[in-house]
Amino acid sequence: MTLQSDDEVKIDLQGVGTATIDWGDNSPVDSITFKNKYTLERLAHTYAQPAKQTITIIGEGIANFDCIYANLTSLDVSHCPTLKELRCYNNELTTLNVSKNPELTHLLCSNNLLTQLDLSQNANLQDLQCDRNPLKTIDVSNNTALKVLITNSAELTTLDISKNPALATLNCGDNQLTTIDVSKNPALDGLFCNKNQITTLNLSKNPALKNLNCEYNKLTTLDISENSALTTLYSQKNQLSSFVIGDQPKLQYFFIPDNEFSEQALNDIFQSLPANDVKDKSIRYSNNPGADAANKSIIEKKGWTIK
């Protein structure tokens, strides 16, 4: 890997056997013997003066590699087929080739300068966090084991997750999406699609959904009647004028301000909200056309606190 060295660089390794680290500045080569296959080993090196350096790590059994906040400009992991977890976020990487890492399960490469990411050879990938990169597109169709996908602030215009049935957490906020189809993701329990341009959102195939943030979109209606596990909903700053709630025994936070709800629509929502045993239930509905005239006593009698 190549970096623009600062005073000190830190990396974490986990694996089996031994590994050597050449820091690239003619200092003695460091070696490490892994204590066990579960413990990360921290290595640190201080450079005499700032300069572009190339660090070479050699080890046959490296499974986990952390090189975060290291000012990396390039990273080559093509000779590490045993790699399972790679954390290289908060660097200056413009490319990242993981095609030779078939065992990879966790890839955290957020906040770099990546414009493309080929994941076609990473069928075991479970956790992908590639947010805050100018990707514009991401293909996860070959990553059927994926459980976590964090791709917010990536300039995406489309996102296809139809081949990811195990997906439990999706954060695709702050992109340019006009639609998101989650009908093939029955395990989804956290959906964060805020700050896009989404006009419709069908949640009827997501019975496990617990947390929903769809604020700052262009939704006009929302139906959560099939999401009885829901605990938290943020849908402010849309164009909502109707809402189907259904049975919500676990709902605790219900935020719908800055929409288009009339007095009658808000009263209907208040009537539909549960009088459940959940403590500290909170609702916010300000800055709707009918907010001032709505009968807030309906929800207050059910134990809801107006924020």
- CATH topology of one domain, what is it called? Leucine-rich repeat, LRR (right-handed beta-alpha superhelix)
**Tally of contiguous helical segments:** 2
Round the mean pLDDT to the nearest integer and report it.
95
State the distance separating the first and last CA atoms.
50 Å
Name the CATH superfamily classification of one domain: Ribonuclease Inhibitor
Q: Give the overall silhouette.
A: elongated
List the helices and strands and how they pair.
Layout: E1 2-4, E2 8-16, E3 18-22, E4 30-33, E5 41-46, E6 52-54, E7 56-58, E8 61-66, E9 72-74, E10 85-87, E11 106-108, E12 127-129, E13 148-150, E14 169-171, E15 190-192, E16 211-213, E17 221-223, E18 232-234, E19 242-244, E20 253-255, H1 263-272, E21 281-284, H2 297-300, E22 304-306
Provide an overview of this structure.
The chain has 307 residues and is mostly beta strands. Among the domains are: 6-58; 67-177, Ribonuclease Inhibitor (Leucine-rich repeat, LRR (right-handed beta-alpha superhelix), Alpha-Beta Horseshoe). The chain has helices spanning 263-272, 297-300; strands spanning 2-4, 8-16, 18-22, 30-33, 41-46, 52-54, 56-58, 61-66, 72-74, 85-87, 106-108, 127-129, 148-150, 169-171, 190-192, 211-213, 221-223, 232-234, 242-244, 253-255, 281-284, 304-306. It has a 14-stranded mixed beta sheet, with no helix packed on it. It has a three-stranded antiparallel beta sheet with strand order 6-1-9, with no helix packed on it. A three-stranded antiparallel beta sheet has the order 4-3-7, with no helix packed on it. The protein is elongated, with a radius of gyration of 24 Å.
